[in-house]
Amino acid sequence: MVRITEDLVRRRAEHNDCEIFSLEEISLHQQEIEKLEYLDKWCRDLKILYLQNNLIPKIENVGKLKKLEYLNVALNNIERIENLEGCEELQKLDLTANFIGELSSIETLKYNIHLKELFLVGNPCTEFEGYRQFVVATLHQLKCLDSKEIERSERIQALQNYPEVKQKIREQEQAYLLKRAREKEEAQRRMQERHDKKQKQMESKLGFDSPDSLQNKENDGDRRQETVEDNEEDRRFWEEPTPYTPETRLETHRYIEEKRRAKENRRESKKGEKPLRTLVTAEGKVLNVNVPKLHFSLKDDEENNQIILDLAVYRHLDTSLLDVDVQPMYIRVLVKGKPFQLVLPEEVKPDSSSAKRSQTTGHLVVTMPKAKEIILAKQKVSASIKDSDCNTLQKNTRRSVQVEKLEVDPSKYSFPDVTKIVQEKERVGQGPIRLQPKITEATKSHVDFENNEDVPPLI
Fold this sequence. Notes:
Strand content: 5-15%
Distance between the termini: 149 Å
Number of helices: 10
Mean pLDDT: 82
Structural class: alpha/beta
Helix content: 25-40%
Largest sheet: 7 strands, mixed
Shape: flat
Strand order of the largest sheet: 2-4-5-6-7-8-9
């Protein structure tokens, strides 16, 4: 039986940050709820409550919701209106498509003085003669019944005929209650018969099946037979005429739920019985398998005489979910239980192999040294190149050994004095510069020379 739980209420209260104590509106429709409970303790501030299309048989545990204004319990198994006197602010009540046959139970709604709208469409009581007149005359505060506004004249006429209408309603109620009693007995008998039939089927399977047949019960032929039987049972169940009652509605729901669970169990069993993938044939041949469908690369490192496998596992995959098994001729890696197997081109050393995860890509890198040791010949260098390299090396060695130090001898390396390049001439007189007669070399050389002003110059 599905009940209202705190987890369910919090999940349906996402619009209120999953807080249920201050919740004012909640929708719990189509949750297969079979009992109405706990809401009056967890959600005292509720104003709007949607509970349509469930399996609720009785209105209960809502009397403490003093602020409740709208209650929708359509498409349930309710047979009587009750326990709503405490909902002081109730303005709208939707009871569409229920099983209300006790129409006189609406008298309990007299205490809900703010009730304006009432919906009873689809209930057995709506087929009673004088149904609308009785409701209009009983609930004076009502403004709308079954989406139809109540006129003042209609209410006056209903009040005038109220005693007669009430008597007719009582008689029809008694007839309906007798009918319901017979329907309950019939439903109880039918459920008992179905239970006994199912018990006999289980006993027959356990009594007549040998252990060998029980072990072989899961073959394809038996499964097909079970499928045919299930289909036949479904056909009989859905084609059997049954009255529309709360019991048949609940029985239908439980039958559907039972079939759904059986289907899930078969699906789970099929998953568990899935045959393991062949990794090694009966002849001993190792197969290449890539169940996890991962990209990989296999590199033959001849320089280091090893084989490197780079398996592109998921970057954020936990290393504990990887299982590496290196064999001389193949490698097997289990990624979350899914096998990856690859045949190697050469024999390797399993004991000397190593596996590690790349810190950048998260790939699994497996290094496998080869079993056969290979000696690689050194490359020959030509004589000319070798001689030139030797000469160069010797020169560099000499340069590094003989360190020359430069010393400057002032006597050997003297620099001219720039300030004495031009000799300073002495001035003849003080004051402004005056033009002096040029003394030629002749006058200097000949001391006895006399200058005669009367003789003109030679040039």
